[in-house]
Amino acid sequence: MDIIRLNEKIEEFVNKHGFDNDALALKREHAIQKSEEWQRTLDDLAEEGRVLKIGIIGRVKAGKSSLLNALLFDGNDILPKAATPMTAALTIMEYGEDVRAEVDFFTQKDIDEIKVKHDAYLQLLNEKIFQNKQEIEERALAKKGKLQGLRDKVLDKFKDKDEALSAQEKQEIEEKARSRVEREMKNDPSFASYDQYCRMKASGKSLGDLAQYGTISAGSVEELMSGKLNEFVGADGKFMPFTKSVTLHIPEKGLQGLQIIDTPGINDPVTSRGERTEQLLKDCDVVLLVSPSGQFLSNEDTDLIHRVTTKEGTRHAYIIASQVDSQLFGSEGQGLDNPADILQRISATLTGHARSVLAKQVGLYPTMKDTADKLGKSPVVCSSGAAFSIRQRFNEQHTWDSNLKHIWDNLKDRFPAAFADEESAKNALDQLANIEKLHGIIAEVTADKEQILAQRRIDFENSKRTALQDYLQAWEKRIAEQVSQIENADIDELRKQEAELQCQCAAIDLTVGKVYEDLVFDIKFNLDKQLKDKLSSEMKKYNAASEGAQGTATESREVYAGRNWWTLGIFAKYKTENYQISTLQATPVRRAIEEIRVDVEDGLKHLSASYSHEWKKKVYKQIIGALREAMGDEGLDERMISRVVRNVLAHLPEAPFRLADDMPPSLKKTGQLKGNEAEEYIADAEEYVSELRDTVRKDIEAYIDTLAANLKKVDLAGDLTGNLAGELKQLVNEIENKQASLFRYQSIQKELEALKREAV
Q1: How far from chain centre, in Å, is Cα 588?
Q2: Are 309 and 591 in contact (CB under 8 A)?
Q3: Number of neighbouring beta carbons within 10 Å of residue 377
Q4: 655 three-class SS
Q5: What is the pTM assigned to this prediction?
Q6: Burial 76-111 (b: 16+ CB within 10 A, else e)
């Protein structure tokens, strides 16, 4: 019998025979939950096992689309290309019977956020243009060297310098200053927001225009990709600036059982999309980092690596060196004529480089260790999407584009022996493409996932079945005790105990009440201290992450260096000066804060639960002692006292600890920050961590106060005497009707035996 039905049948058994009073304590002792909770867990496992989730990360033009087209679509150009380096939408691909795309657009809140960042970029841009314009103007004046008639004007601190430059010169200076600054500012993190908002305004569209486009249907994949979808993800698409993510449903065999998450680049202009991207990556079973072999693992790639979280979800991570065909003609190929040998050498070189880069990242950011270990575990996989396309369309050269033709010609010229005939050429192309290796990775991960999920379900079901078996044995023991008491107890002695209990109520109330009061004070004092010590320990993790993520970079600028004596002090001279700016990898700091939040909450919950468990054991021991003190060792049956105390304690209030705080939006940044932005971020982070510490301390105090108040509401002595009186009365009644009672319990024991057989 499955555990859900078995649990339900045992619950029916308990309710049928009125065993509710004993049931709560026994359920807690054996971790028996409601069937609905167990069913939710089983449903989650089934849902999780439905598809294999693969995350793809890589910078623009890394060859992600070519790789996926080769991996999933036999080299056909199915996937949409990124619109721009900064605005590529988050793309999710799943199998579907019908060809369609579900488009998720930015909200008004998202657009407002982009607008704020756009305005900040413009302000900084204009400030820099003004500064550059002034510098260029002064140099232009000095270069002209026309001092005659100009001296007095220039000496007057250039008040009339505009008159010294023609309209054309001023226009050229303006354009030069703007061009220089715009070129520099494209590397600024805020450029993405500026670019995004400009595209939104240029489109002439608004959110109201998008309501009807949530779902896009098409008759074929080609129609969807080359036509309708371009409006939403194409570089010139009317709705592209508003597209947050696209989920593609494609009836392609290669997608069955898979979900592919193709992520946008770093510096996402919208916080909500960046958060969703990271959450999706966190839930992935495997992550593929795609980096072009010619510019392997650049700074942008290392920034992307910080997106990968393996602690919670991702079990596998691989580095793919794409476009490897371009490296066959470089230094790695010297002395070798076989492309397979060159590939082996390239793979070894790139693997060594990757492990060196990852080790450096761990040194800088210790929180990266789990991710680095998984990425560095396997050798770098070299692949060429172009080679795969050539191989798949080997006899259809008329379908090749100019790039494929160029690659083919280069390969034949460089390796005439390997490409001497069709069979040899196809074999060499297969080796270059290396798609079988990628298919093998996915197959391995799929098998691993299925095995792990199947084992998790088996382990869960086995543990709950064992718990139910132990639960039934506890009931068997409880019924046997009751039968033994009915058969052996002296009814006169029981009535004497009833009377004694009535007489000793006041003494029990005083003795038990005093013990319980001391125990409540104990939990209030000691648990408070332990929780705050745990908080301090967890908060130390931030310091390590923050120190590791901070650094410096060198930049240069031109600064005023006095005036040239040969121009009679009229014109300024400048020199190039190097200076240090602060840098910060925001992702590991933010992730450390997020982990601290989770660890604090989980740690406090676990600590409070374990302390509560030990505290109840202490209560049990001391209450038993207090009852003996009040009534004497011979006053009551020890097993009855034990059972009654356990049942009363099972009803004590529970107050699991919960952290109510939330992380502010200003800390939800990714990638590398520089200068003021880095300094502002770390200042905000330190302020938040400090406030978090204070907030959690207050939450601990509030939790302890609430817990103590709830415990004080419990009339433990009264509940005990009431339950003992009830137990004695029931036992007296059952002895007075001994034959009927024994027949009833014999019937109950038969039901238990049947349930035990079903539980095997």
Answers
A1: 12
A2: yes
A3: 11
A4: coil
A5: 0.64
A6: bebbbbbbebbbbbbbbbbbbeebbbebbbbeeebb
Residues in the chain, how many? 760
Q: What angle, rounded to 10 degrees, do the helices at 339-364 and 369-377 form?
A: 170
Q: Are strands 572-585 and 90-95 parallel, antiparallel or unpaired?
A: unpaired
Asked if residue 30 belongs to a domain, the reply is: no
Domain boundary among 159, 177, 199: 199
Question: What is the chain's Cα-based Rg?
Answer: 37
H helix runs in 523-666, sequence order = 528-549, 586-631, 638-650
Q: Assign 319 a pLDDT band (cuts: 50, 70, 90).
A: very high
Per mean pLDDT, which of 386-390, 469-473, 622-626, 695-699 is the most reliable? 469-473
Pick from 678, 204, 134, 748: which is nearest to 483 by CA?
748
Q: Which domain holds residue 153?
A: 111-199
**Position 647, amino acid:** N
How many angstroms separate the first and last alpha carbons of the chain? 8
Q: Are strands 550-563 and 572-585 parallel, antiparallel or unpaired?
A: antiparallel
- Residue 355 in domain: no
Bridge partner residues of 115 (DSSP): none
List the strands of the sheet with 672-674, edge to edge: 550-563, 572-585, 672-674
Return all residues near 133 (Cβ < 8 A) that are at least 6 apart: 173, 174, 177
Residues 642, 114: Cα–Cα separation, whole Å: 65
Q: Does 476 fall in a domain? A: no
From 164, 179, 199, the end of a domain falls on: 199
DSSP secondary structure letters along 227-295? IITHHHHSTT-SSGGGEEEEEEEE--GGGTTEEEEE---SS-S-HHHHHHHHHHHHT-SEEEEEEEGGG
Residues 504, 513: Cα–Cα separation, whole Å: 13
What stretches of 75-166 show up as alpha helix (H) in DSSP? 108-144, 151-155, 161-164
Tell me if residue 187 falls in helix, strand or coil. Answer: coil
The stretch 194-220 carries a mean pLDDT of: 84
Number of domains in the chain: 2
Distance (Å, whole) CA 686 – CA 672: 18
Q: Is the pLDDT higher at 284 or at 142?
A: 284
> Do residues 606 and 656 touch, judged by C-beta distance below 8 A?
no
Tell me the average pLDDT across 647-675: 70
Q: What's the DSSP call for residue 653? A: P
Q: Supply the DSSP symbol for 527.
A: I
Asked whether residue 260 is assigned to any structural domain, the reply reads no
**Residue 433: CB partners within 8 Å, gap ≥ 6?**
70, 383, 384, 385, 387, 388, 391
Give tens-digit pLDDT for 251-272. Answer: 887 788 888 888 876 555 566 6
Amino acid in the structure at residue 70: A
Mapping DSSP to helix (H, G, I), strand (E, B) and coil, where does residue 688 land? helix
β 286-292/316-322 pair status: parallel
DSSP string, 347-378: HHHHHHHHHHHHHHHHHH-GGGHHHHHHHHHS
The per-residue pLDDT for range 340-372, each reduced to its tens digit, is 899 999 999 999 999 999 998 888 777 778 888
- Whether residue 87 contacts residue 281, with contact meaning beta carbons closer than 8 Å, is answered with no
- Band the pLDDT of 189: cuts 50, 70, 90: low
Residue 716 exposure: Cα atoms within 13 Å on the Cβ side: 29
Which 8-state DSSP code applies to residue 105?
E
Q: Which residue has the tokens 């600024």?
A: 188
CA distance 321 to 303: 17
Q: Is 335 left (phi over 0), alpha (psi -120 to 50) or beta?
A: left
- Three-class SS state of 658: coil
What's the DSSP call for residue 729? H
The answer, yes or no, to whether residue 147 has pLDDT greater than 70, is no
Three-class secondary structure assignment of 73-99: HCCCCCCCCCCCCCCCCEEEEEECCCC
**Tokens of residue 631, six digits:** 């009534």
Backbone angles phi, psi at 555, to 5 degrees: -130, 165
